[in-house]
Fold each of these.
Amino acid sequence: MNLNFMLSTFWTTERVTIAGAVVLVLIFIAIFLRFVPIPLWISAKFSGAKVGIGALIGMRLRRVNPEKIVRPLIKITKANVPVPVAQLEAHHLAGGRVDAVVNALIAANRANLDLPFEQAAAIDLAGRDVFEAVRMSVNPKVIETPMISAMAINGIEIKAVARVTVRTNIKRLVGGAGESTIIARVGEGIVTTVGSAQTHREVLENPDKISKTVLSKGLDQGTAYEILSIDIADVDVGRNIGAQLQIEQADADKKIAEAKAEERRALAVAQEQENRAEVEKMRATVVAAEAEIPQAVAQALREGNLGYMDFLNLENRKADTKMRENLASAHMEMSVKPVK
């Protein structure tokens, strides 16, 4: 009985040990599969992509999703564009879009464009769409400017719309100006070209003169694009700005003249009022002086400085003077009065 008990105890202990070992093995396998994506490693192995199990474990430890690195690596390896997995992982850790860079490298390789991985990564980290840039290098883009208004020398307004065909200059993509700069420079060139024309008819007869002149100015310097052609899509005649400016100038001159005339009138009125005040002052002085004459005459008579006959002669002269003034006034009234 003791033997049976010992055997049963042994088998029970052995089963517990085996079960514990199995559990430990399963835990180890789960942890291993958690850190090492075996299906992804198998896909990379059969695709020719060089990525080891240690590299996959390192990605897990660095908190990098191996799916975002290995899948683009498989894609670029099959396209025969060798890029080390360490560079892809470094670009991902820097905040770049690995898949977009890989697509751009594949597209550039198919189009025979020289685009190193470092340059593509720099373009992506600068915030540019590197794949769109490569596609624009192969398939140029047409940029249409808004309606641009300019005036010829004869004062006639010309309205023009231009279509600018550009392609990406990958070497100047980082730090180069964008579409808005191209549109602004083309608009400035159109205004300059139209403004140098003697008449608006020259522009209407030769609209290609605008595109040739603008294209010769090298407007794509410092931009991320290369201008291939500038075509004038539409040209219209606008207002007669020269005549309108002359009318506005004439109105301004008229208002200035009216203001100066009003100023002169105000000065004349002020001068007249000043003269009237001066005349009134002189008249008051004369009246005051005339009021003193009788007193002076009386004083002269009392003191014997004036004889009585002299006084009578003075009064006679005053009467004669007054009579002459009355006759002159009557004569003037008769000469002015119309004959019936």
Amino acid sequence: MNSQFTEQKRKERISYLLAKERYDYEDLLLIVKILRGEGGCPWDMEQDHKSLRKDFIEETYEVIEAIDTESVKLLREELGDVLLQVVFHADIEREAGTFDMSDVSNDICAKLIHRHPHVFGEVSVKDSAEVLDNWDKIKGEEKQRNTLTDKLRSIPPMLPALMRAQKVGKKASFFDFETADLVFDKLYEEIEELREAAQNKSLEDVKEEMGDLLLTVTSLARKLGVDSEEALFGATNKFIDRFEKVENAVLSNGDRVENMTMEQLDAIWDKVKHSK
């Protein structure tokens, strides 16, 4: 009897959704419940946090792509996909009886109010920099991060390595080179140490020195006011664009880049690089 009631309720909810011309947030919650409930979608019912992990990462990067390409249409779509991921993960926990989306919404609202005392309290700030300083201080108090090491370890290790390195450097900025010129000197030192490790053919030493070099590069980027992750992203795109021009030049001559010598490709590359 109970299963029949459940099935009847499921059909009523589906009919309700199919009759609508426009959906809202509550409908999304209902759809996920239906997909994961009895008689729902086999794939959706099988998922857990770990199986969805890769999808969450991909959806997040697709939002970034929409932002970078300034596509409002794509941004609207991809934000929906990220929202689905949030609702999906929350629904898994709702089924386990731990929390649901109302708890998630409550917690983020409470956090925003607590971390904006200059808006919801009596604290005064003069600019955005002071807002961020207060935010970090309040966050540290909430999570009982009493030492600088606590704060450094709190930076998610799964962030892109360059981004994480620059965030670590920023939080430890008092333990840093005073000027960019001093970082340049350190950079040359690290390059020589990497060269020496390479000459000794020690893969472990090369790996270590390469890491030191890249970390120094992020320090230099910070001193010069550049985001190292964005700089590398732009440089990679620039390389692909230039490579496309090189390959098109080779193809127009009836050849393929795989058949060209490095000297020939370098000559074409230099021509492309200096062309308007």
